[in-house]
Hints:
By secondary structure, this protein is α/β, with parallel strands linked by helices. It has two domains: about 10-175, P-loop containing nucleotide triphosphate hydrolases (Rossmann fold, 3-Layer(aba) Sandwich); about 200-280, Orthogonal Bundle (Conserved Hypothetical Protein Ylqf, Chain: A, domain 2), CATH 1.10.1580. The chain contains twelve helices and nine strands. Strands 1, 2, 3, 4, 5, 6 and 7 form a seven-stranded mixed β-sheet that branches. A two-stranded antiparallel ribbon has the order 8-9.
Amino acid sequence: MTDYQWYPGHMTKARRMMQEDLKLVDLVIELADARIPLSSRNPDIDSLCAGKSRVLLLCKEDLADPSVTRAFCGYFEEQGISAVPLDARTRSANALIKNRVEEACRARIERDRRRGIVGRPLRAMVAGIPNVGKSTFINSFAGKASAKTGNKPGVTRGRQWIRLNKGLELLDTPGILWPKFEDEQVGLRLALIGSMNDENLDSVELACDLIKVLNNYYPGVIKEKYNITEDQLSVFLEDQYANEFSAVLSAIAENRKLIKQGAVPDIDRASSLLLDDFRSGRLGRLSLERPE
Length: 292
Ligand SMILES: Nc1nc2c(ncn2[C@@H]2O[C@H](COP(=O)(O)OP(=O)(O)O)[C@@H](O)[C@H]2O)c(=O)[nH]1
Ligand SMILES: [Mg+2]
């Protein structure tokens, strides 16, 4: 979880650091989450990166619905954005990404050639919202433990370049971007994938929202995984803010033997279990958005 709160001051600072680093690079490698490729993109990325080449990586594709990810790649392609899905923990997409980087920078390479400039490497930086996989990707792409992984923002900012080959250098510190806040649904999806600070969230409420979202896109998943009956689910969906709001959570608690003193189903633990099962892929590869 990120423990970083995006107060206006933090956003101003993040924007300033991004703008400084952008002066140094030809290309931005933008990271989004494959499960929510729209909600996990920074709202100002287009204006921030105006005039820069760009490649979009859809991280955590191992957790996302493959057919939805394919649809999103087509959707971005139509907008002239080259998108590559990947599991950032592995190196399997490295060659493809290097190709896309060179494609995206072809105009600059040509211009250098016309002007007789030789040996100037392309310079790139990685950017994205917290927890999207920036450090993990830099490690895999650079092929050594050159960037810290983990969830603590605010690591010292020195400008160091990682030389990937003769033609390509990567800024070792990624640009940390703020997410979209205006749209409530966007905030909910970010919370569901675990990219908001859980301490400020009501896990029972969040788990109820997850059940609703999943029921919309993947009817059957919750029922099958936790042996929930159609009745329990429909009572929940019809009456979620009344007394029976926790019918499904109670059933999950009973199914998983999460029982409090007095034989009461522990819906707090059931909520955490459900969220955790979803985030770690134990409910399957599921996407929470579709192309618009
Ligand atoms: N399953 C999966 N987990 C990933 C992937 N990329 C990153 N992670 C995990 O997501 C968490 C956040 O990654 P990190 O690289 O620290 O994100 P950053 O805040 O953008 O630098 C870590 O626990 C990573 O192991 C991916 O492609 N698939
Ligand atoms: Mg990081």
